[in-house]
């Protein structure tokens, strides 16, 4: 079976690398990242609405509380929903909330929309689909389950490549959990490991209706071009929609691009109008204030001190916003700035590696030691994936040493007995600052898959509020505290031995995991 995986690079066309746009950081003012709003909507909020979570248990309990208190909408996008007891408890919470909503009004206003990946969500006889069918049967008017199927898995490739390996071609990888006007951004999936002992990152944006509307519309847009799960466990496309693997690929991708870009551009226009209106009101308010004293300011909202930028990456649809912003951040980071970058799967794109090795900022890169890699102990070929990551890490470390960059670029390995590591994102500390002013948090891993194959979303959170900066700093410190610095001796340890066949195969398959 694994032989088909080795054929995959020959069966899928290469994707050209596109450089980042010619935009640069504004050197003036506390908020130096406003150039991002040229690409995506900018949401200005109060830092008091942002809460950084630290543990899987905290994440799980928050999901349950938010589901139980939702009145208007529950929108959840994930790679998959697991099939264990903890996942069943989440489904039970949804059922209970929907039932209460029906009893309260006779006809419920509550709508539940769930977006998962088709291949991962269909794996095995008991799967994400079978977990959710009872909800569809009980609440057909209120529940929607969409299963995204990559347009790149089609024809002969779809027939030949077996289950599990078909997930290497492309996935719905976005993780957004939204309840009324509260939004959780994370890299965690809806599975028991992510609720117990798989470390990830999580941020809650409270009482943020514009951000919640944006992600609702984004999930709806992807859902519209996805297969719709039916009550009898069949799937079908919405009427008039091009099929992702049976229809014309170019036509499908064009429709998907149009739907997603409509969401991004309309939100951007809305936010620009809102900014203009707010600016005009604040100008009037300051004029009144000078004439009538401090009472005139009572009705004005406080100025935002935190800005949220949604960064979308959907290369199959020709959308590369996250890649552009990430490359620009890495390119423009100044000398003595520090970037803490973390990924559960260290497999950076060549473009990201070149920028890290060729720019001036200091880098502290946190990755999983083999024992906390999500594939550690897996059966079959997947069991060799941690060794492949060790090989990739060793190659990168050797390049760092060759360029004499060990002081500027440092690798650190997360290690924690009984846990796995899945955190991803970055924290940016400007030169001379002990606190980060920007973080990226969401689903991308900074690897080839994230950039070229999968559907990804994260947010850039920019803040000038010291308390929120401190929260982000503590989050970074807690993760890095459980790590050890990588040196030449790291790769001499017995558990770092990489078999010859893994070294030979890794260059062929590294773009698929």
From TrEMBL:
InterPro entries linked: PGS1, PLipase_D/transphosphatidylase
Gene Ontology cellular-component terms listed: mitochondrion
One of the GO BP terms on file: cardiolipin biosynthetic process
Catalytic activity, as annotated: a CDP-1,2-diacyl-sn-glycerol + sn-glycerol 3-phosphate = a 1,2-diacyl-sn-glycero-3-phospho-(1'-sn-glycero-3'-phosphate) + CMP + H(+)
Domain PLD phosphodiesterase span(s) in chain numbering: 168-194
This protein's UniProt keywords: ATP-binding, Lipid biosynthesis, Lipid metabolism, Mitochondrion, Nucleotide-binding, Phospholipid biosynthesis, Phospholipid metabolism, Repeat, Signal, Transferase
Pathway annotation: Phospholipid metabolism; phosphatidylglycerol biosynthesis; phosphatidylglycerol from CDP-diacylglycerol: step 1/2
GO molecular function: ATP binding; CDP-diacylglycerol-glycerol-3-phosphate 3-phosphatidyltransferase activity
Enzyme Commission number(s) of this protein: 2.7.8.5
Domain of life: Eukaryota
Segments forming a coiled coil: none
Subcellular location, principal: mitochondrion
Signal peptide: 1-19
Protein name, UniProt field: CDP-diacylglycerol--glycerol-3-phosphate 3-phosphatidyltransferase
């Amino acid at each position: 079976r694994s032989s088909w995986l080795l054929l995959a690079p020959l069966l899928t066309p290469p994707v050209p690398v596109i450089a980042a746009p010619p935009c640069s950081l504004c050197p003036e003012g506390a908020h130096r990242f406003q150039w991002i709003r040229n690409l995506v909507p900018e949401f200005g909020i109060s830092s008091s609405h942002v809460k950084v979570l630290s543990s899987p248990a905290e994440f799980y309990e928050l999901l349950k509380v938010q589901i139980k208190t939702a009145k208007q909408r529950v929108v959840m996008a994930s790679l998959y929903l697991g099939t264990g007891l903890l996942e069943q408890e989440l489904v039970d919470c949804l059922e209970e909330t929907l039932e209460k909503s029906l009893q309260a009004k006779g006809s419920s206003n509550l709508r539940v929309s769930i977006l998962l990946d088709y291949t991962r969500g269909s794996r095995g006889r008991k799967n994400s689909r079978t977990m959710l069918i009872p909800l569809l049967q009980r609440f057909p008017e209120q529940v929607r389950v969409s299963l995204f199927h990559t347009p790149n898995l089609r024809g002969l490739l779809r027939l030949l490549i077996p289950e599990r390996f078909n997930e290497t071609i492309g996935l719905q990888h976005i993780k957004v959990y939204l309840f009324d006007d509260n939004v959780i951004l994370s890299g965690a999936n809806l599975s028991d490991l992510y609720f117990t002992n798989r470390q990830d990152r999580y941020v809650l944006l409270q009482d943020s209706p514009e951000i919640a509307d944006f992600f609702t519309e984004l999930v709806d847009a992807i859902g519209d071009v996805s297969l719709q799960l039916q009550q009898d466990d069949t799937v079908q496309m919405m009427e008039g929609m091009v099929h992702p693997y049976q229809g014309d690929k170019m036509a499908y991708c064009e429709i998907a691009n149009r739907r997603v870009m409509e969401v991004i551009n309309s939100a951007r226009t809305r936010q620009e109008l809102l900014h203009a209106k707010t600016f005009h009101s604040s100008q009037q308010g300051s004029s009144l204030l000078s004439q009538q004293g401090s009472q005139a300011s009572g009705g004005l909202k406080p100025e935002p001190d935190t800005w949220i930028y949604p960064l979308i990456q959907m290369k199959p649809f020709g959308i590369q916003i996250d890649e552009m912003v990430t490359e620009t951040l890495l390119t423009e980071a100044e000398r003595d700035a520090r970037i803490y970058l973390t990924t559960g799967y260290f497999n950076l794109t060549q473009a990201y590696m070149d920028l890290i090795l060729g720019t001036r900022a200091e880098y502290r890169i946190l990755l999983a030691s083999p024992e906390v890699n999500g594939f550690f102990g897996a059966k079959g070929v997947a069991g060799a994936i941690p060794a492949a990551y060790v090989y990739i890490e060793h190659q990168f470390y050797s390049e760092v040493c060759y360029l004499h960059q060990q002081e500027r670029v440092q690798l650190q390995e997360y290690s924690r007995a009984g846990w796995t590591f899945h955190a991803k994102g970055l924290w940016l500390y400007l030169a001379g600052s002990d606190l980060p002013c920007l973080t990226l948090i969401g689903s991308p891993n900074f690897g080839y898959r994230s950039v070229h194959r999968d559907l990804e979303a994260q947010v850039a959170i920019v803040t000038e509020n010291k308390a929120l900066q401190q929260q982000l700093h503590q989050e970074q410190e807690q993760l890095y505290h459980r790590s050890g610095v990588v040196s030449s001796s790291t790769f001499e340890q017995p558990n770092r031995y990489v078999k010859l066949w893994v070294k030979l195969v890794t260059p062929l398959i590294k773009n698929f995991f």
